[in-house]
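Final paragraph of the annual report: two paired records, presented back to back.
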Amino acid sequence: MASKASIAGHPIHPMIISFPLALWTTSFVADVIFYFWRGPSLLVISKFCLRQDAWAPLRLHYQASLIGLRSRMIRLSE
């Protein structure tokens, strides 16, 4: 099934959903483990994942737009 929302033929939904979902899940698991085992590195991991999660959609949109721009430039040069 082809996606109507795509950049250079690549669907946008998997790019925007998969990374934030994985980062949020990792942050949640790190918080649960920290609750039982007070390792200070788990707080760092959790905060890093949440910070990356907040910026992931914007960063992925920027990277996808660069891919689209590059593919358009290649098509123009041919």
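The closing record of the year follows.
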Amino acid sequence: MRCATCRRATAPTSGRSTGTSSRPARSARLTTRVARPDLLLVGALLHDIGKGRGGDHSEVGESLAVQVGERLGFPDADVAVLGAMVRHHLLLPHTATRRDLEDPATVTRVVDTLGGNGLLLELLEALAEADSLATGPGVWSPWKRTLIHDLANRCRALLAGKSLPGPTPPTAAATELAGAVEAAGRPQVLLDPGDPAGVVVAVPYRCGSLAAAAGVLALHSLEVHAAELATLGGVAVFTFTVSPRFGGLPDPALLRSDLTRVLDGGLSLPEALARKERDYAPRGPVADPPAPARVLWFDDEATGAVVLELRGTDRIGLLHRVAAALEDCRADVRWAKRRRSAPRSSTRSGWPGAAWSAHSGSGSSWPCSGRRPAEGPADRDSHALMARLAGRGHPHSASRALSVRESRCECG
């Protein structure tokens, strides 16, 4: 019965598969990777069944999936797994692309949410891949694949009673690059043409270095998907996961030259990025104005930090603008992630729990170092972030999200 149901669900009604049927079709190719392929296929068919019915589609869909599972004759335990698959089908993608996976609290929260169910974790990992592949060819990117599999592997390690790996130490290449910066006092750049591609940037530590590095990458048509930041002595080392917007990776000598000019004041990134944005702006009238950016503050349930979510329309140099605004507000960015979404994007940032926070009536909160800000909660930094995001260039149609963790900048 289950096989017949799955065949009917995945059979195209015309010359091509519909969006509804493509998820089970993609899931069918992953059935040998899970212990319960029947639950994977039915869960893939039902995971978005709650859309268009009002409320959170995951919560609405859970109730409907339970009813369908009972009608299909699944045992009670399997019905519960089906409902949980629908309820939590976004848990792994959202956590992997928005949270610090090296934080044990992040992994513990996922395992606790799933009730310690290893089967459910396995099914959700496969469902996340099938859902992304069916959404579009670029959605299941090497970056997203690596993050989700890393999160799932960390959860499996916790379930098996193994100790979670600690923070990833700097690579030998990053350490060597930092040594070259300390010796010469000039920025250094190293490219990794892997899949996904990477760029390691080492510069003498100072406020504004992340914004400078991110802006130079944008100037050379590199999209940043994630960034890990470390300090080795007096050197800031940024490890970016990137993909070229066009063609291949740029010459590292050009990146190093432009970064040196930016840090020395010989190249104005805002002006250069504005020119690039104008050059790539679509011709003709704009049908609809872009959605206004929005800044939200809330508590990170995994780390206890205060979290900033910034939603804005994607544009060239977005990470540069956000990093510049945060650094202007005395925040030192520690890690960053981007998540694509439509039609908007969001940036998340968290200050460590030691920072003081005050909550406004709207539920937003303001982090600062030991004193209450002169303006209302979140007003001043929210205005700074919004000002950085505002611009005259036309935004791109794609949108993205970043997760950023910050601590107070000590440089003045």
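The chain has a mean pLDDT of 76. This concludes the annual technical report; the extension proposal builds directly on these records.
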